[in-house]
Amino acid sequence: FIFALKTERIMIKDILDIAGIAGEIIRNGFGKNFQIEFKTNEKNLVTEIDKKAEKAILDFISKKYPAHNILTEESGEYKKDSDYLWVIDPIDGTTNFAHGLPIFSISIGVMKKDEIIAGVVYDVMQNVFYSAEKGSGSFANENKINVSDNNKLGLGVLVTGFPYNIAENPDNAFERFETLTKKARAVRRLGSAAIDFCYVARGVFDGFWEVSLQPWDLCAGKLLVEEAGGIVTDFSGNEIDIFSPQILASNKKIHQQMIDGLKV
Ligand code: IPD
Ligand code: CA
Ligand code: CA
Questions:
Q1: Atom of ligand 1 minimally distant from the CA of 93
Q2: Which of 36, 73, 99, 110 is deepest in the core (most CB within 10 A)?
């Protein structure tokens, strides 16, 4: 037990270190010339910097935690026989990064069996490290953060994002956007789901929803919101795991009002 605890304690510092190393690669690449490729379509990009940052993260983990499983956005799964799984998005907000908009992050979550035990989201250009360990609260750098106290959707500022197949309007994304834009004070769209979670965790936004996320978009952010006193479910209020595409994160107090607003 002591050994297990120790491993987890060491891990958060390591995750912060990895994020810092990858962050430097990304900051140095920002605004420069880099190769861009299309993935599923021409909205869905990957740059040479995403790949470089991911490689640096993978090198670090395979040296320090060679037995652990890893799941990354750009190179997929590295399966070992371990209870631990690292879930990594080297740049969350690649469209922003590729177009010179300084809103993007690195997202690293760590699971032990079915539980997210640690998460770090590094807001690279603001130089803020968001971190959480299960049961220990959420932090922005060394400051503890909490979700907002607001209990009225009409007074709330929300955030959302759209998937790369938005032209097909999956899961009534536009209808839901319209309803919540009318009901809330405002809805923003920043382009980095991981940062959206962090802003719910620190009470900037009261809620965040998205129709179709991937495990690497949400693993770290989910823990950050929960440890800051918020809740993350699907659009019906059911508990979710990291493979659930639908996510609704809020300060808890406006959760039911958001569920009602997301009904189609
Ligand atoms: C995307 C961003 C965006 C969200 C998309 C994600 P990527 O991740 O988080 O905010 O709306 O659904 O796919 O592709 O920049 O890592
Ligand atoms: Ca992402
Ligand atoms: Ca990404």
A1: 15
A2: 110
